[in-house]
Amino acid sequence: SKSVSPHALCSFFFLSSWLPQMVLFRGSHWQTSLLALRASLPMRAQPKKKKKVDVKREQAQKDRMKKKIKKLEKAAPEMIPIEDFIPPLKYSESSRVRSLPPLSFEETERRVLLMKKWCLFKQNQDKAEQKAIQTLLKAQQEALKELRLESEELYQAAIRRDEGLFPFERDGPNYTPPLPGYDPPEGKCVDITKVYTQ
Amino acid sequence: TAAAPRPWRLFGAMCLLRLPRITQPLEKEEEEIAALMGQIELEKSHYSDHEIRKLQEEEQLRRRKDSKYDGDDEAPGKTVIMAQDLEDKWEQKLLQFKAAPRITDADKNNNRTSLNRKLDSNLMLLVKQKIGNQKLWLLPQVEWQPGETLRSTAERAMATFLGDHIQAKILGNAPYGIYKYKFPRAIRTEDNMGAKVFFFKAFLQSSDLSQVELKEDYLWVTKDELGDYLKSEYLKKVNRFLLD
To answer: Is B129 helix (H, G, I), strand (E, B) or coil?
Structure first.
């Protein structure tokens, strides 16, 4: 019963002096028996002084704890490590390095030329996209101009913001269309991500 | 003073788009680059656990063959699953799965009224409408009535041809394009010179249109096929607000 606080022990001692008949009463499973408890209580000659010294000691302990808590709180909160940016150590072992033949001169040449072709391809693609967007905008501006000539009221209704448009969600295109009547296999996913609290 | 009545009649038309369901095929350059990127990634990577296991088992097999049944005492009791066996098993499982085809039956029959055609591009709704005394292929349009915004006119146009239970996301309150035309001289008057058709765009969201009964002829066509049906001036204006 070392885990029982002195406070609980004192109260129990009081209760036991009141009801000596209730031997079976146990405050908690840590208190094995009444008689053993009585023997384990520290007996002091001067009960009054014991209280003062105890109280003083307890207060000193409390102050020390409070100081420690204040120090911890003042210290800056530790950064939560981002698991993705820290590669696990087992992957930097030398035995893991792939052994491949070195690239030939033709291969490097081919790669460089391919990258240049890709640059050009992407540039043309981007230019075409920009042009399409510009035509789109011009067409819309023209339509709005004509609408304004027609009726100011309709024009104002047209340029009002559409609140229901965003957020706009859509399932992106896949490689194959959905298979009708497909039953996906059952499985369970166990999430083992570590959650850090500050 | 009341504003003078404008001589133009207003129409609201809806360009209903069915968005693509599958990805477009890669161009030649894109495929080459994708292969190159895969190769570079492989070269820069380290061995994974599965690959190390495979290498170690290959080593063991080789040693066992060279040393000629020296390790026979340890192995035969337990049946060890090799990494190679696992890979074969996975390969088999992949081959058993059969995905839906990218080119559907409607593609092969060129059935232009079906929505299951050309799954990798946008499809637009074209309806045959009576304008004056001609029946023309147009984007569904309906005349504007005073008291409603042009967007609601377009919505009404969609509902007239496809019914009320169509789910479509209209992209904003503003029109995307305009087609202005003057009536032929026979019908033209001071107050009734011509018509302005304002186009609105919407994305079709309900994928099942089997309950819809269209009274008129309708077609779902891609941007390239529009030229087969629309008149040149109309087509020019429509092409401006369509992204491929």
So the answer is: strand
B131: domain CATH number is 3.90.79.10
- Chain A nearest C-alpha distance from B26 (Å): 11
Taking CA atoms, B175 is separated from A137, A139, B11, B64, in Å, by: 11, 9, 11, 77
Read off the tokens for B114.
Answer: 């079906």
Are residues A147 and B203, on separate chains, in Cβ contact within 8 Å? no
**Closest partner CB to A139 (pick from B20, B27, B241):** B241
My answer on whether B42 and B134 are in the same domain is no
**A162 contacts chain B (CB < 8 A):** yes
| pLDDT tens-digit readout, A80-111 | 888 788 888 888 777 778 888 888 999 999 99
User: How many interchain CB pairs under 8 A, A with B?
Assistant: 127
Helix (H, G, I), strand (E, B) or coil at A93: coil
Residues B13 and B46 in one domain: no
pTM value is 0.71
Q: Which domain holds residue B227?
A: 8-22+110-240
Total domains in chain B come to 2
DSSP B36-53: HHHHHHHHHPBPPHHHHH
Q: What is the pLDDT of residues B61-78, one digit of tens each?
A: 888 888 866 555 555 545
Contact state of B198 with A147 under an 8 Å Cβ cutoff: yes
ipTM entry: 0.82
- Domain spans in chain A, listed from the N-terminal domain onward: 103-159
